[in-house]
Amino acid sequence: MSTEAFERCNQILKHIMGDTSVPRNIRRAAEESKNLLSQDDDEPTVRASTVISILDEISNDPNIPIHARTLIWNVLSELESVRE
């Protein structure tokens, strides 16, 4: 279950990383989140929680475009299902 969710999240995060209309700090946070989800060192719930805290913080950035914010919310809701 969590592997499929992480894969879907990674696809969305890759899309954000490649979007030049998204500010660099947001793209950097997306890249960091993608890397964390790809690591198998920690439990899936720990990885999901860590990424949720990173993305939750940047989703409140006033400079983030609406489409990127919506994508981040999609990732957050996907990861919330892993945590439960």
Automatic annotation (TrEMBL):
This is UPF0147 protein BRM9_2384. Belongs to the UPF0147 family. Pfam families: UPF0147. The lineage of its organism: Archaea, Methanobacteriati, Methanobacteriota, Methanomada group, Methanobacteria. It comes from Methanobacterium formicicum.
